[in-house]
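HUMAN: Mind making up another protein with tokenized structure?

ASSISTANT:
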Amino acid sequence: MKVRHLVTAATTLCIGTAAFAGPQCTEAPKSSWLTEDVMKQKIATDGYTIDKFKVTSGNCYEIYGKDKEGKKAEVYFNPVDGSVVKAKQG
């Protein structure tokens, strides 16, 4: 009986963790991605200020920074074409 409860608890914990994961941006090989330098330049041209830049487990370029109005922004970009996949501002 105790084992069943542990399995249920572990399954619930894993499902709950997945809900907080970021988006999946691409399945394309990294050789087809824009370089980080090119992407950072595109992001700046689009009006964002970058405080933190990273590659996510979902194959996205993600930034924490500010948008062109100076509001905090967390944005996920498709690394192949630079398009915005998901953005949170405020």
